[in-house]
Amino acid sequence: MGGMFDVVVVGAGVIGLTSALRLQQTGARVAVVTAEPSTETTSSVAAAVWYPTRTPFQARVLDWATRTFDEFTCQAADGAPGVVMRPTRMLLRGRASDVPWWAAALPEVRALRREEVRYPFTAGWAFTVPSVEMSRYLPWLQERFVTAGGTLIRRRIDALDQAAVWASVVVNASGLGARSLCGDAQVRPVRGQVVLVANPGLHTSVRDEDNAEGSTYVHPRSTDIVLGGSFELGQWDTTPSPATAAAILRRCTELLPELAGAPVVGHRVGLRPHRKGGVRLEADARPPGQVKRMVHNYGHGGAGVTLAWGCADAVTALVGGAALSV
Q1: Facing residues of 219 across strands?
Q2: How many CB atoms sit inside 10 A of residue 27's CB?
Q3: pLDDT at 324
Q4: Closest CA to 28 of 167, 174, 175
């Protein structure tokens, strides 16, 4: 069993593909097994602006976020499809907050000046972070993987030990699928709905961080703008809600009146893989069946893009020489 490849990665979202690429760069023969193409994963729906959404501080999370920021910065400079550095404003209500913990990952974060803030906001932060258009970026990642000799396998598996047919070292990047594949009841969906509108010429991402009516953000892209959003824990429905869409449009237009009348060009719903207790990134002490080494990398919630490359580095370190020695 497991003689065809050195490592098999389960999952072809941004977490799975970045893990596969990093492992491939060590010289390992890598396969990715997935039930659906990357263009149909949760990652494909993501607004995908670097920002550790609802992610509490941990030293290792800051390390992952920093490594990912640095990788995207290099990719933006090299012209990677869909990756640009996007000026961002995070607006606050009430008293000014302390410098966010994630600011340590960025070269510069500054407090907004008084003249840059209008009612009902009282303070905020300005920074520049990577923005990633996933419809362009995910196919590019997959192409890089395949061109370098990687194998993509379209197959649905019901348990992680089934992956041992391809390799005895398995990386579990199954996202929400980990709830059933490894029986992790701490994994639950967080339903996120966004509205896409034509871009009237905006370039800066804006977040209303404290809106009591719901998550509110405006993320420009090359041809459209992602307006969000919703954060509905435990909801599995992926059908866009007209009422939610109307509320998103109202909040975002109140935030940026320039959006009034912008044509709606689409609606998207994704299920973020939230995990109580945070990301599970560790080697399994008791891998199942014929698996010799199992490394888990899932539960990123709404911060998958923000942590992806740093987590891929951590996965590679955990797999270590096992991929080439078993």
Answers
A1: 226
A2: 10
A3: 53
A4: 167
Encoded tokens for 162: 């089934």
Q: Which domain holds residue 144?
A: 7-325
| pTM over the 0.85 mark | yes
Structure tokens at 67: 């490594």
Beta strand pairing call for 169-172 and 293-298:
parallel
Q: Taking all residues of the chain, what is their mean pLDDT, rounded to a whole number?
A: 94
β-sheet with 169-172: strand ranges across: 151-154, 30-34, 7-10, 169-172, 293-298, 280-283
Domain contains 249: yes
Length in residues, the chain: 326
Q: Is residue 314 part of a domain?
A: yes
Residues facing 196 on adjacent strands: 226, 266
Residue 2 lies in a domain: no
Instruction: Supply the pLDDT for residue 1.
Output: 42
Query: Can you give the pLDDT at residue 90?
Result: 95
Mean pLDDT of 76-102: 92
The pLDDT tens digits for 153-184 are 999 999 999 999 999 999 999 999 999 999 99
* Structural domain contains residue 1: no
CA 142 – CA 53 distance, rounded (Å)? 25
What CATH number is associated with residue 55?
3.40.50.720
Q: Say which DSSP state 49 is in.
A: B
Q: Is the pLDDT score of 2 beyond 70?
A: no
Phi-psi region of 82 (alpha: psi -120 to 50; beta: other; left: phi over 0): left
Number of domains in the chain: 1
